[in-house]
Amino acid sequence: MVPVSGADRLVGVGVGRALNWRRITRMDRTIDLFVPGRVCLFGEHSDWAGAYRRFNSAITPGKVIIAGTNQGIQARVQACPNQFVVRTTLPDGTHLEERLPMEREALLSTARAGGFFSYAAGVAYTILTYYKVDGVEIDNYLTTMPVKKGLSSSAAFCVLVARAFNCVYDLKLTTRAEMEAAYQGEILTPSRCGRMDQGCAFGQVPVLMAFDGDLLQTSRLAVGSHMHLLIGDLKGHKDTIRILADLTHAYPFPVDAASRAAHEYLGPINADIVSRATDILQRGDAQALGALMTEAQQQFDQHLMPVCPTELTAPRLHAVLQDPQVRELSYGGKGVGSQGDGCVQLVARGEAERTRLAAYLQATYGMDCYDLDMKPPKLVRKAVIPAAGFGTRMFPATKAVKKEMLPLITADGQCKPILLAIVEEACSAGIEEVAIIVRAGDEAYYEQFFCSLPSPEHYNKLPEKARRACHELAELGTRITFIPQTEQLGFGHAVYCARDWVGQEPFLLLLGDHIYASNSDRTCARQLIDAFHAGGQVSVIGTYLAAAEEVCHYGTLAGAWLNPEQTLASVTDFAEKPSADYARHNLVTAGLPTDHFLCVYGQYVLTARIFDYLQRQIEADQRQAGEIQLTTALDALRQDQGLLAQVVDGEHYDTGMPIAYLRSIVSFYERGLQGRRG
User: Fold this and answer.
1) Is the pTM of this model over 0.70?
2) What is residue 349's three-state secondary structure?
3) CB 85 within 8 A of CB 75
4) Cβ-based neighbours of 657, under 8 Å, separated by 6 or more
5) 391 and 338 in one domain?
6) Are residues 439 and 329 in the same domain?
7) What's the pLDDT score for residue 83?
């Protein structure tokens, strides 16, 4: 997906503060989107069962692991005044089109009618209900996933529509919010989808989902090694409505042996299987994953097949699972989705074995097969945000509230803490886990904000939009770890506190008192991560262009340009808060305007090697101005592994001093407002 910001986006041409502006209107912009299908690896039906905790608290919360498929739907989207236009191309080449006025009643009527485009209309209705948008045109020009086979093709289309509105009108919806809009849109149709179906919004990664009544929690899972799965269309019959209807007799309270068995499987047995599956995926043990799938299928057959034998006996599924040739080429497998004779998933013993397995299933059973690859996470998936300072320059306000929790106002009129905006900057760049370094003893303060819902009395007084924000914030909190800094020994020491949590992975580092605004389609943090990947995994510092009188406040560096655009440089020298004279004699970078220098922007992507140099400083008590400085370690890293400087196409706003804070929150708000107005 290519995110776009602002209805009439202002795109900067140049670097840092030396910008010329030109206007690009979104009406002329086409955005390419891809949404995968989703396969339920473990936990089928427990999402549905977990919802019954609203009526029976003895039910175990449902737990599911899903994964985005290699296949999906590709589309081009753009604004379309007054109309909602959807075109789709099915896997067999069939072309379909729907044109509707962008009016709530027309959209709702189409959604309830249950036609092919009812899902799309339902989501458009939901978006129009909660957001100020106009129409969109969606051209789903390629569909590579099978439909009505348990891979959530309808849910993927719903997510596509939600994402189209999100990108075209810069709604700044999180992935969870897109997922929720897709779900609310689909349930307006005759479809009775489960809440896990829209998990395809998370992309081609495994996701752990927990269902506790109306509360849904999600977290991405890391995969330890490349595992080769195969999804096969059994070309059989599956009546999902009949399966759910029969299961309904067992809920919310068990009344006989069959319903008690269903509660046992969808409750404690499933929770144990999903817990073990989570560990297996993180280890990357394909053999153990296949064995667990086989075990899960056996437990499913024992406990749930008697509830709906006409559908869950599934003769084609079991014939494939028991086939000696299938067992020779795979570690094991199980049914997909609601089970029955829809699809089968198998863990192949390797890539070559998967190819042979697909050919065998096609030749023997006439099955169409689809690869599913689960791979280790991308290179940069963790972020560290130091937030353990005393806030002395913002006293006495910081006697009442931590400086990182001081408020700012977003362009849509939302008041949020600075720290939340920084966490969102990291997550919008694709970061999966965030560590916040806090003063020892302050963990509960931050946990209460990020991880706890308000009291029922407070929650019930909130408007619907604020309630959604509560759940999104709690969901965000599941991705955050709070690490105490027992002594405030400087920025470098705060970063060092995250050493064990980071491990040997590269990580994104963001200052806890800066906020950021990109001038381009990529967030500021994403620009640095892309530079890290493109630069051969060499550590990268974000920089901006500053005048000589400013360098005494920031880390300043000199570099040699690596590209004609002069946006990426190899760092040749580095100094922490140098004088203007020192910078003029030692830190000049060719090609910059006279008396201008590259200063640190407040974002970094660093390899784990940085911790070795910080440890040496700490052990030698090597301080500058009484503190362990990151700059010293960065210069050592430069000499050892090299260091890159990326000129960030965006603005950063310092909130660490009173006047700077005032100017920053006003500028940040006005900039966002200008982008929304175009």
Assistant:
1) no
2) coil
3) no
4) 393, 394
5) no
6) no
7) 95
